[in-house]
Amino acid sequence: MLRLADAADAVIHRIGRWTSWLTLVMVLLISGNTLGRYFFNASTVWLQELEWHLLAVVALWGISSMQLSGSQVRVDLFYQHYSERTKLWIEFLTALLVMLPFSLFVCWLGWKFTAHSFSLSEISPDPGGLPWRWAVKSLVVSGYALLAVVAVTTVVRTGARLAGAAAPTAARENHGH
Questions:
Q1: What would the DSSP string read from start to end of 99-139?
Q2: CA distance 13 to 31
Q3: How many angstroms from the chain centroid is the CA of residue 77?
Q4: What pLDDT digit, counting tens, does each position of 98-144 carry?
Q5: N or C: the chain end with fewer CB closer than 10 Å?
Q6: Rg of the chain, C-alpha, whole Å
């Protein structure tokens, strides 16, 4: 199970690196759109929509990498004083009872949301906007599916550590665990 968790974590880390580069692309796009609008009085709807489409990718796919690397917000005022075992229990139970069910619930809702958009062949309501609105809406499903994978690997890894079967892997230690 730990090997599968390591493989899944490696994929999540690659997605995280990809979304971090996509953030640079998004910043350049927004800068270009702003400069074009203010200095050349030129603007296109599809480029403006592309900005928020890229933001959706960065936010919804990047959240799993952020969670895996331990970048999430905790109430460190309390957390820092807990024993290592208590921290493991908190991580285990949060992943099992909150993150996994919530992620799967959002995937279930998002699937209906995306399927409805696909069945309508939904496109941008603005002239010159981007087609395939369902593809952007599918990011909700894929993003939360990635988060569910992180929840499962967290349960596997923390469960193994609680049972005394494994230490943190090198991949996790390099990313804040």
A1: IHHHHHHHHHHHHHHHHHHHHTT---SSTT--S-HHHHHHH
A2: 27
A3: 26
A4: 999 999 999 999 999 999 999 999 999 998 899 989 999 999 999 99
A5: N
A6: 20
**Residues 177, 172: Cα–Cα separation, whole Å:** 5
CB neighbours (10 Å) of residue 167?
11
Residue 95 carries which DSSP code?
I
pLDDT value at position 177?
45
Q: What share of the chain is helix, strand, coil (3-state, %, to 5)?
A: 75, 0, 25
Q: How far apart are CA 119 and CA 126, in angstroms?
A: 19
Could you tell me how many residues make up the chain? 177
Tokens 């480029």, located at residue? 47
Cα–Cα dist 165/121, whole Å:
50
What string of H, E and C letters represents the secondary structure of 158-170? HHHHHCCCCCCCH
How many C-beta neighbours within 10 Å does residue 115 have?
14
